[in-house]
Amino acid sequence: MTEARKVPLLNVANILTMARLALVPVFLFSLFEAGGFDTTWRLIAFGIFAVASFTDHIDGTLARKHGLITDFGKIADPIADKALTGSALVGLSMLDVLPWWITITIAVREVGITLLRFWVIRYGVIPASRGGKAKTLAQVIAIGLFVLPQNDVLELIAWAIMAVALVLTIVTGIDYVIRAFKMKARAGRAVL
């Protein structure tokens, strides 16, 4: 029996994940600089948010394609994702760009599903669904649009995409809860 190839902790996928995490305070600094509504700083904040969001796609693709999946990456990647989107939502709410109820709804869902995944981890992993991936994409696009300096047309588009993101956030949250309880029930029947 051959020994499985050891994946180094320091690999390109994990470095991109850590870079995304490191960009969170830089993004927040840019978002709030000059009172939070300076056009240049908002464009800089948007650029940082866009680059950080894109690294999420790249690190996952590289990890799967080149066999660079590590336990560290499995934990750090979702933390980096939630830190980026969560800090952006909180920042936008602090600037009165987004109502707090939107930020709280999304945050409660994200934290709740993360805890739910840990609750059922001994029975298996709940993989991200297509709806969950669409939710993430809609959230990132909507947040990015709200970070940009606003005009009437852009604001209307941002609100429309945020509405889609909210619906997907709630629907996929319910779906994850149902899947978790089904997984737990199947594991319980398997023991009997």
UniProtKB/TrEMBL annotation:
<dbReference type="InterPro" id="IPR000462">
    <property type="entry name" value="CDP-OH_P_trans"/>
</dbReference>
<dbReference type="InterPro" id="IPR048254">
    <property type="entry name" value="CDP_ALCOHOL_P_TRANSF_CS"/>
</dbReference>
<feature type="transmembrane region" description="Helical">
    <location>
        <begin position="12"/>
        <end position="32"/>
    </location>
</feature>
<protein>
    <recommendedName>
        <fullName>CDP-diacylglycerol--glycerol-3-phosphate 3-phosphatidyltransferase</fullName>
        <ecNumber>2.7.8.5</ecNumber>
    </recommendedName>
</protein>
<feature type="transmembrane region" description="Helical">
    <location>
        <begin position="156"/>
        <end position="178"/>
    </location>
</feature>
<keyword id="KW-1133">Transmembrane helix</keyword>
<keyword id="KW-0472">Membrane</keyword>
<feature type="transmembrane region" description="Helical">
    <location>
        <begin position="132"/>
        <end position="150"/>
    </location>
</feature>
<keyword id="KW-0812">Transmembrane</keyword>
<dbReference type="InterPro" id="IPR050324">
    <property type="entry name" value="CDP-alcohol_PTase-I"/>
</dbReference>
<comment type="similarity">
    <text>Belongs to the CDP-alcohol phosphatidyltransferase class-I family.</text>
</comment>
<feature type="transmembrane region" description="Helical">
    <location>
        <begin position="98"/>
        <end position="120"/>
    </location>
</feature>
<dbReference type="InterPro" id="IPR004570">
    <property type="entry name" value="Phosphatidylglycerol_P_synth"/>
</dbReference>
<dbReference type="GO" id="GO:0046474">
    <property type="term" value="P:glycerophospholipid biosynthetic process"/>
</dbReference>
<dbReference type="InterPro" id="IPR043130">
    <property type="entry name" value="CDP-OH_PTrfase_TM_dom"/>
</dbReference>
<keyword id="KW-0443">Lipid metabolism</keyword>
<keyword id="KW-0594">Phospholipid biosynthesis</keyword>
<dbReference type="GO" id="GO:0008444">
    <property type="term" value="F:CDP-diacylglycerol-glycerol-3-phosphate 3-phosphatidyltransferase activity"/>
</dbReference>
<keyword id="KW-0808">Transferase</keyword>
<dbReference type="Pfam" id="PF01066">
    <property type="entry name" value="CDP-OH_P_transf"/>
</dbReference>
<keyword id="KW-1208">Phospholipid metabolism</keyword>
<dbReference type="GO" id="GO:0016020">
    <property type="term" value="C:membrane"/>
</dbReference>
<keyword id="KW-0444">Lipid biosynthesis</keyword>
